[in-house]
Every structure is written in structure tokens, then in C-alpha cells.
Amino acid sequence: LSVIQRFNNRGENVDDLFQVGCIGLMKAIDNFDLSQNVKFSTYAVPM
Questions:
Q1: Number of domains forming the structure of the chain
Q2: Do the Cβ atoms of 21 and 4 come closer than 8 Å?
Q3: pTM of model > 0.85
């Protein structure tokens, strides 16, 4: 939720921000390549 708080003051709905974050996380999971020897927590970072 801390990422949502960074964008909350821009007038967006909190539920919408959460949903976009979930979609981003699902895309990161789909595109993550285990063979690259990188931790998922390093790969999927909020921007």
C-alpha cells in the first residue's frame, strides 16, 4: 500500500491504483525468467 500512497494525491481512486498494481505484478510474474538467476524481488520493483 505504500506505493498507492505515493500516487494517492493525484486524484485517482485507491481501488483503481491497487488494481493497476495487481495487473503489473501479474505481468511481472508472467515475464519473469527463472533461468536468469535474478531474485523476483529485484526484478519486480515499483517504479
A1: 1
A2: yes
A3: no
